[in-house]
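Need tokens for this chain, all 199 residues.
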Amino acid sequence: MDQRTREISRVEEREKKKKKSLLREYAEAIIIAVLLALLIRAFVVQAFTIPSGSMSPTLLVGDYILVNKFIFHFRDPARGDVVVFKYPWDEKRDFIKRVVAVGGEELFIKERRVFVDGQPLEEPYARYSDLSHASEYGPVTVPADSYFVMGDNRDNSQDSRYWGFLKREKIRGKTFMIYWSWDGERHWLRWRRLGKFLP
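Here are the structure tokens for all 199 residues:
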């Protein structure tokens, strides 16, 4: 083998090593990205889709939301929080409702007004249909480590009025942002809702 052939061989060998090194770097980067995504999804943030109108007008069918799964490691759910949780009658399903009362509080509903410990709640987000009747509920006292949750669309929501109190351990996280919103009936993007943060 002459000098030129040996040189070509060395160059080819270096190129092969570079390609292997580059492929290895890409593979490592992809594996790390996937692991981080899985960790984030498991412990920090998860995406959900709104399938029904029970939280209208706050959340609409076709809204895609981000849920903070980490926040309740530092504080308890509070009145007004919109939470995602395992549906008590079928834990394979996720539900989303608003916390209305917390453990130890007494709640009753009279003529569409929600009262907690005798005081009426200010609920600008609550909606009733024109045909709805004046509903009555309670009084009930929320057990410790439990919550009374309701949908904002009060006449179209399967919530604590029907299946009881929500236990703390069933809550998966707090909704904090709409990152995408698609109107399936009209087939258009609700661009004004994109990036909307919820309190």
